[in-house]
Structures are given as structure tokens and as C-alpha cells.
UniProtKB/TrEMBL annotation:
InterPro entries: Cyt_c-like_dom, Cyt_c-like_dom_sf, Cyt_c_BACSU-c550-type, Cytochro_C550_firm, Cytochrome_c550/c551-like. Residues 41-116 form the Cytochrome c domain. The keyword Membrane applies. This is Cytochrome c. PANTHER family: CYTOCHROME C-553-LIKE (PTHR37823), MENAQUINOL-CYTOCHROME C REDUCTASE CYTOCHROME B_C SUBUNIT (PTHR37823:SF4). The chain crosses the membrane at residues 6-28. Keywords: Electron transport, Heme, Iron, Membrane, Metal-binding, Transmembrane, Transmembrane helix, Transport. It comes from Gracilibacillus salinarum. SUPFAM superfamilies: Cytochrome c. The lineage of its organism: Bacteria, Bacillati, Bacillota, Bacilli, Bacillales. Pfam families: Cytochrome_CBB3.
Amino acid sequence: MKKNPIIPFALIAVLGIIAMIIISAVGVNEQDKIANGGGETEEAADPQTLIQNCTGCHGGNLEGATGPNLQNIGDTYSVEEIQEIIVNGREDKGMPGGLVSNEEAAVLAEWLAEGQGGE
């Protein structure tokens, strides 16, 4: 019996079409989750997750690196002052603003003011 040389290509095409349908279905579900505000917002409010935006300059344990030590920043600044610095940055210290949203800045400021960064 002679094999048809087109059959392997046809099978690959069918598998590709099935893969595209499955990926599209998953993408539509993810789009619905994002549109409904699900998923990342709860995780984003976790200060332990948000602080990862700061560790590049302030060190992995916030002990200070190119940026200052934040472990006891609550002894120096109030929650409102810390939040203002996070939101607007400080050009004189090389701190850029806008790295997180205002809501995330409020969560981080409260967490840092409570001294949680020093744990």
C-alpha cells in the first residue's frame, strides 16, 4: 500500500487548528476575568508583593542599596508623607514617582510606616 505524502501535513494542520481554537477559548475567558476586575487586584494589594517594585533600589530586605534603608522609615515619616513620596517621588534623592498606583502606594505606605519592612 502506498502512503499519501499529504496526510502528515494535513494532520499537522488539523492539530494547529485545534490548538488555535483551545488557545482562543482560554484567551476569551481571561479577557472576561480582566474586564470584570478579577484576579490581580487582590494580589496587587498585598504589600509583600508590591514591595518587589522597591527592592531593586532599596535592597531585598529594604536594608538600603542605591536607595535609602526603609526598614524603619516609619520613625522618620508619617504614613501620609511616605505615600506622597511613593506617589510623587523625590527628584533630589533619585526616587522616581508613579511606580505603583495611588491605591497601592497607600497600602505600601501604611505597611512601611508600621515597620513591616524591617521584618
